[in-house]
Model the fold of this input.
Amino acid sequence: MNPVDHSDENENETGSGGGERNEDDGLRARLVRVGVELVNSEGAQALSLREIARRAGVSHGAPRRYFPAHLDLLSAIARQGFAELAARVAEADPEEAPARARIEALARVYLDYAGTRRGMYELMFRHDLLESGRLGLRETSLPLFAHLAALVAQARPGTEPTVLAGALWANLHGIAQLWHWGSLRLATGGDDPEPFLAAALDAHLGPVESAP
Done:
């Protein structure tokens, strides 16, 4: 008697399992994508599990299967923000230029992102998300800061680049926030953030040397 051939059954089982995994990965990605679209259009306050599930076309309890806590899903969405910001910085980076020019390009991208992706920007720097450590969100934010610190080390040799980069980042973040709130316009009467960016760069990196 010939042995029973179970190869078709095994293939079907493997295929079925693979299909379920693909379906899970697809739904997980869809929830994150919907969350990104929602935060960009309506702000971080709109990111309830129920609303994301509704827009993704699933039951309101479905996100819990992939993201046990609300912070998990918010962190996954914020990771996309850091990835987008890093991609914009890389695209705008004049790699052959002096370090100061590269820092200025990074700073412009940062301020532009804070203004054009307001909801995502606020989500990315939410203290509770970064503090939670969900999905390694804090680690996701570090490569961009390390890039800034490396450029600062080139632009200002002999300084503490991490401290100086941190101070510059804090200055940029303050400009972004105060400009959005209208506080800088109210206090200074200015209608353009450019002078504040130039002043921040001069304060932390020194003024640009005039050509002889």
